[in-house]
Structure formats: C-alpha cells, structure tokens
C-alpha cells in the first residue's frame, strides 16, 4: 500500500500536528515495535514510560500525555487516541478481499440474481433464488442456500455457510467457517426417543453486523432469529433459535445464548458467558467475562458472577466453605433465635424491676 503523509493522516483523524507534517508513514505499529517510518499511538497512561524508548516517526496521543513524549517524535494530538488508531488502521489496511471477480470454479444457479461488481471465489455454491447486492464478496468454498438475500458490500470469508431463506443486510462481515441459519436445537421426547422438530423460521441480520469465525447462528423454530444493526459477535459463539439481539450490542468470544433470549441495545457480553433462554436483558447492560445469567436483567449496569482465579490452596478453602453454606446458615438461624429470645427475657426483667 502507498505510504501516507502525516498531514493527510492528521486531517483524517482531526489531529493537531506538532512537528514535521511531511513525513511519510508506511504502516501502523505498537509503541515498542514501531520503526522510523511507522506511526504508533498511546491510549493508556500506564504505558507513558514506553514513549522514551519509542522509535516511531510519529505518535498519536492526548494533550495530557504530551509532557511524557520525547522531542524527536512527531506528535498528533487528539481527544481519543484509540478511536484515531481505528481510523488509521482502516486507512493502512492491507487485508486482501476474500475473492476477486467470479471464479470459473464457482457453482452459481441460473436463477440467482447478482448485483454489480460481485466477486465469488472458487468452489463457492450459490443456490436457486439467491440475491446478492452490489459489491458483495463471497469467499472460496462458501455455501449460500436457496432464496437467501445478502445486501450490498457484505463480505464472507472462506467456507462460510448460509442456509436457506436467510436475510443479511449491507456492509456486514463474516469470518471463516461461520454458520448462519442452521437448525435450532428443537426435539420432542416420545417414549424415550428424541423426535426432531423442523425449524421453520429464518435468520434476519441487519446492516453493519460482524460475525466471528466458527460462530453459529440458528434459525428460528417458528419465528425468526434477529440480529439488529451494528451488532458485533466474536469467534466461537452460539446463538440459539429465536434469539433477538438489539442494536450495537457487542458479544465476546465463546458466549452461549440460549433460545428465545432477548438482549437489548448497546449491551456488552464478556467472553465465555452463558445466558439462559426465554428471558430479556435490558438496554445498556454489561456482563463481565464468564458471567452466568440465569434471570432477567431489567436495569442497565455492570453485572458479574463466578469466582476469580485463586491458588489451588485458596480455592480448596473457598470450595469447602461454599459446600458448608447450608449448615452455616442453619447454625446462624439458631443463634439468631437464641439471641432474640435472650433479648426478650432481658427486657422482661427490666420491666419487672
């Protein structure tokens, strides 16, 4: 990718430049690894001391961090360095497209409708009735099931599987091996045998949604599984049938969402959390990592559960106490009853005197 000039970068991130604006920048790097043709950033004051040893050509930082920055570094002063870093990373992104043009090895049904400038990789399969918007990119080995619709500029990396009748919005990104529209876990037990219940709903995904590698999103049993605009879901997550996720919610890796769960807008779900089904989570809820959410949450805020890591010796003591909580509770109730009886007797003696 062609190098960028500091002046142009500053204009993109609305920065004040202190130093030479004409320096060419080849790439973005971390504080300690950056070289003299690269740009870096400081978003956490804890790493101010690293500025002394920084070899970058330029650094993005706040006005509060300026006194800690050596004179030899060109400084781009902004209010939010991390946001600026994100914008520059997009400018300097060298990630290739999942596919270019339409491979002769792709299998495309005659009834499929392709927009302008669509790219489809080798061994991809596009079934009957599929509609692909303008500038859609389908990576190698992808499967797009019957009557699925994918909006403009959406990209699918290699080996993504999208089942039938799924609707995906514009400007979405799906990492490799994501599965969208697979059957939900629906079975009826009859005389000890599991009878499969066909999953008749769909998956509806809004605009600007990003789905991580190996994440699975089940189709609805009767209604639809819905993921609204701006949602981001990390790798290895499970979204069960009829889950509804509100706008701009972020879900970290290895999260499990049980069926018919409704999550509000602007929530954050920490990694490896498990959320029970058939309940609602309010807007603006943050669940920290490894949270176990078994009941509805009706107010925004930060929620946590689980026991942080301890040494084995400490954990064994904690576990022993937890196992004896019921006995301790019974003893406390007996003591409270005896104390109450004793206080009552004392009061009677005082009144009699």
TrEMBL record:
<keyword id="KW-0444">Lipid biosynthesis</keyword>
<dbReference type="Pfam" id="PF00132">
    <property type="entry name" value="Hexapep"/>
</dbReference>
<comment type="subunit">
    <text>Homotrimer.</text>
</comment>
<dbReference type="GO" id="GO:0016410">
    <property type="term" value="F:N-acyltransferase activity"/>
</dbReference>
<dbReference type="InterPro" id="IPR018357">
    <property type="entry name" value="Hexapep_transf_CS"/>
</dbReference>
<dbReference type="InterPro" id="IPR007691">
    <property type="entry name" value="LpxD"/>
</dbReference>
<dbReference type="GO" id="GO:0103118">
    <property type="term" value="F:UDP-3-O-[(3R)-3-hydroxyacyl]-glucosamine N-acyltransferase activity"/>
</dbReference>
<dbReference type="Pfam" id="PF04613">
    <property type="entry name" value="LpxD"/>
</dbReference>
<dbReference type="GO" id="GO:0016020">
    <property type="term" value="C:membrane"/>
</dbReference>
<comment type="similarity">
    <text>Belongs to the transferase hexapeptide repeat family. LpxD subfamily.</text>
</comment>
<keyword id="KW-0012">Acyltransferase</keyword>
<dbReference type="InterPro" id="IPR020573">
    <property type="entry name" value="UDP_GlcNAc_AcTrfase_non-rep"/>
</dbReference>
<keyword id="KW-0443">Lipid metabolism</keyword>
<dbReference type="InterPro" id="IPR011004">
    <property type="entry name" value="Trimer_LpxA-like_sf"/>
</dbReference>
<comment type="pathway">
    <text>Glycolipid biosynthesis; lipid IV(A) biosynthesis; lipid IV(A) from (3R)-3-hydroxytetradecanoyl-[acyl-carrier-protein] and UDP-N-acetyl-alpha-D-glucosamine: step 3/6.</text>
</comment>
<dbReference type="InterPro" id="IPR001451">
    <property type="entry name" value="Hexapep"/>
</dbReference>
<keyword id="KW-0441">Lipid A biosynthesis</keyword>
<comment type="function">
    <text>Catalyzes the N-acylation of UDP-3-O-(hydroxytetradecanoyl)glucosamine using 3-hydroxytetradecanoyl-ACP as the acyl donor. Is involved in the biosynthesis of lipid A, a phosphorylated glycolipid that anchors the lipopolysaccharide to the outer membrane of the cell.</text>
</comment>
<keyword id="KW-0808">Transferase</keyword>
<feature type="active site" description="Proton acceptor">
    <location>
        <position position="241"/>
    </location>
</feature>
<dbReference type="GO" id="GO:0009245">
    <property type="term" value="P:lipid A biosynthetic process"/>
</dbReference>
<feature type="domain" description="UDP-3-O-[3-hydroxymyristoyl] glucosamine N-acyltransferase non-repeat region">
    <location>
        <begin position="23"/>
        <end position="91"/>
    </location>
</feature>
<keyword id="KW-0175">Coiled coil</keyword>
<protein>
    <recommendedName>
        <fullName>UDP-3-O-(3-hydroxymyristoyl)glucosamine N-acyltransferase</fullName>
        <ecNumber>2.3.1.191</ecNumber>
    </recommendedName>
</protein>
<feature type="coiled-coil region">
    <location>
        <begin position="318"/>
        <end position="345"/>
    </location>
</feature>
<keyword id="KW-0677">Repeat</keyword>
């Amino acid at each position: 990718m062609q190098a960028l000039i500091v002046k142009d970068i500053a204009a993109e991130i609305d920065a004040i430049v202190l130093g030479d604006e004409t320096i060419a920048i080849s790439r973005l790097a971390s504080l300690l690894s950056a070289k003299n043709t690269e740009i870096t950033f400081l978003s956490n004051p804890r790493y101010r001391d690293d500025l002394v040893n920084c070899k970058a050509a330029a650094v993005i930082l706040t006005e509060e961090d300026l006194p800690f920055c050596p004179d030899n570094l060109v400084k781009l002063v902004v209010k939010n360095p991390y946001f600026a870093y994100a914008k520059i990373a997009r400018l300097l992104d060298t990630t290739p497209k999942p596919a270019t043009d339409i491979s002769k090895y792709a299998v495309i049904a005659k009834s499929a409708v392709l927009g302008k400038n669509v790219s489809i990789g080798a061994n991809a399969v596009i079934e009957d009735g599929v509609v692909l918007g303008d500038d859609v990119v389908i990576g190698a080995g992808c499967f797009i099931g019957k009557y699925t619709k994918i909006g403009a500029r959406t990209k699918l990396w290699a080996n993504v599987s999208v089942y039938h009748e799924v609707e995906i919005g514009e400007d979405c990104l799906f990492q490799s091996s994501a599965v969208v529209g697979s059957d939900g876990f629906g079975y009826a037990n009859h005389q000890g045998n599991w009878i499969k219940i066909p999953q008749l709903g769909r998956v509806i995904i809004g605009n600007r949604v990003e789905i991580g590698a190996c994440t699975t999103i089940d189709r609805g049993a009767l209604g639809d599984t819905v993921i609204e605009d701006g949602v981001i879901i990390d790798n290895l997550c499970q979204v069960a049938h009829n889950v509804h996720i509100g706008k701009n919610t972020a879900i970290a890796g290895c999260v499990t969402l049980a069926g018919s769960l409704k999550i509000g807008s602007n929530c954050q779900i920490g990694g490896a959390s498990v959320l029970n089904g058939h309940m609602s989570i309010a807007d603006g809820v943050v669940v920290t990592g490894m949270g176990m959410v078994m009941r509805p949450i009706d107010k925004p805020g930060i929620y946590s559960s689980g026991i942080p890591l301890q040494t084995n010796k400490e954990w064994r003591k904690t576990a022993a106490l937890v196992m004896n909580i019921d006995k301790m509770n019974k003893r406390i109730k007996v003591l409270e009853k005896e104390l109450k009886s004793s206080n009552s007797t004392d009061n009677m003696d005082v009144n009699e005197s």
